[in-house]
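User: Just a sanity check before I run the rest of the batch. Below are the structure tokens for the first item. I only need the designed sequence back.
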């Protein structure tokens, strides 16, 4: 844990970089994750400009303080012990700009909202994203996709901050986008904005696709409970949800965490679950499917933070 004197010193340094309203101390991260799980962050900062992002990264480096990027917490489990040091959330970087058939969206914007802006301008290519709950930054981080589309299909370039706090502009090809992966985490990049190239379409046709995908999502996914979305990647030749269902795991519960009765590929926070209960249920599902079918389920959701002492 950070000592009181270090807390005060770091708080003063952070508030020199970004206004005090953007710096929260001992903030419960369950308030900032879709699963409603997670202990406290020593400091949660929500910068409002690219320059503030750069300066916070440089400050963490200079002070030798642990730094973690939270994103919008949609495909993430934060452990019950929380996260030490500085945690950054880019939820205030939400601008979306349209230039003919291109859309430039800041990393904190929801990818759902970007798809809706595309619809307004009769731009086609982001229909698949109309039900993805994550941010633009998170969508690039994991090359998010659904219903046959994925980010790499439409991404042109991105602006990022590297581990040294330097601003870089990268092409989509430089991110090594693949099925639910990119080189963003390995390189420690912080996505600031993304440029997407779309095609002119017809409003009614685009809306019809989006309405159909929204209907499928709302009828098949357990949106009535907090969750991290799809927990596992699709194993080659299989569907994760079908394997879990055929393993008689649907409805199984550890504490307040439950394998969804509506969609077996989801684990929901049904009743004030802890992160450890949620993670234990993930491990139980993996072990059971491996034992019954010999298939290893790889997590799509990211787990960060510390266990409770």
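Assistant: Here's the designed sequence for the first item:
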């Amino acid at each position: 844990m950070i000592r009181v004197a270090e807390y005060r010193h770091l708080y003063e340094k952070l508030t020199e970089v970004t206004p005090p309203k953007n710096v929260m101390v001992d903030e419960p991260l369950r308030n900032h994750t879709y699963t409603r799980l997670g202990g406290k962050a020593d400091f949660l900062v929500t910068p409002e400009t690219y320059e503030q992002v750069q300066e916070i990264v440089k400050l963490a480096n200079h002070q030798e303080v642990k730094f973690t990027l939270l994103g919008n917490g949609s495909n993430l489990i934060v452990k019950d012990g929380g996260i030490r040091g500085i945690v950054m959330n880019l939820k205030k970087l939400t601008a979306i700009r349209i230039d003919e058939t291109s859309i430039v969206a800041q990393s904190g914007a929801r990818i759902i909202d970007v798809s809706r802006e595309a619809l307004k301008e009769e731009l086609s290519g982001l229909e698949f994203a109309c039900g993805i709950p994550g941010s633009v930054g998170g969508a690039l981080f994991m090359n998010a996709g659904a219903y046959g589309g994925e980010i790499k299909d439409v991404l042109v370039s991105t602006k990022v901050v590297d581990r040294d706090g330097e601003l870089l502009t990268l092409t989509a090809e430089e991110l090594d986008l693949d099925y639910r992966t990119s080189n963003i985490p390995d390189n420690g990049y912080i996505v600031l904005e993304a440029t997407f190239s779309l095609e002119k379409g017809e409003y009614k046709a685009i809306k019809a696709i989006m309405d159909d995908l929204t209907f499928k999502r709302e009828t098949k996914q357990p949106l009535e409970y907090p969750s991290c979305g799809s927990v596992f990647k699709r194993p080659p030749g299989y569907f994760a949800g079908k394997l879990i269902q055929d393993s008689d795991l649907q409805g199984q519960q550890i504490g307040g965490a439950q394998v969804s009765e509506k969609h077996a590929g989801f684990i929901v926070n049904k009743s004030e679950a802890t992160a450890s209960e949620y993670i234990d249920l993930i491990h139980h599902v993996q072990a059971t499917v491996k034992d019954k079918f010999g298939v290893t389920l790889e997590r799509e959701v990211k787990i960060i933070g510390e266990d409770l002492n």
